[in-house]
Amino acid sequence: MTAANRILLLRPGERTPVEGSTYPNAWLGKASVVAFQAEEPDKFGNPVWQVFVTEPPSSSPPPPRSAPSSSPAAEPGDPRGTEGPP
């Protein structure tokens, strides 16, 4: 793989909780990405990482959508919003 055809996806940082085991974590858009070393190595004896992605919970449900009106709303200065000459 050459540098010309690589795309950087994310740059994980390293976290160390009180327990002492370090793990990489990063953000991918609004999703949190963490990886933990698997208990078993691959068939060649290399370490394996299990990667998990979680989206943060929304703080409140989205507001209900109102039904679209049949006539467009008039903006200030828009002659469609007037009823005629005074």
Structural commentary:
It is a single chain. The chain is mostly beta strands and 86 residues long. The chain has a domain at 20-56. Helices cover 0% and strands 26% of the residues. The chain is built from no helices and 4 strands. The protein has strands spanning 13-15, 23-28, 31-37, 49-54. A 4-stranded antiparallel β-sheet has the order 1-2-3-4, with no helix packed on it. Strand 1 and strand 2 (23-28) form a beta hairpin. It is extended and about 60 Å long. The protein starts with 12 loop residues before the first strand and ends in a 32-residue tail after the last strand.
Task: Pick out its properties.
single chain; 86 residues; four-stranded antiparallel beta sheet; 0% helix
Q: What do the pLDDT scores average to?
A: 81
What percent strand? 25-35%
| End-to-end C-alpha gap | 74 Å
Largest sheet descriptor: 4 strands, antiparallel
Structural class: mainly beta
Helix content: under 10%
Shape: extended
> Could you name the ranges where pLDDT drops below 50 across 5 or more consecutive residues?
none
Counting DSSP H or I runs of 4 or more residues, the number of helices is 0
Number of strands: 4
> Which sequence of strands runs across the widest sheet?
1-2-3-4
- Could you spell the SSE succession in H and E letters? EEEE
- Radius of gyration (Å): 27 Å
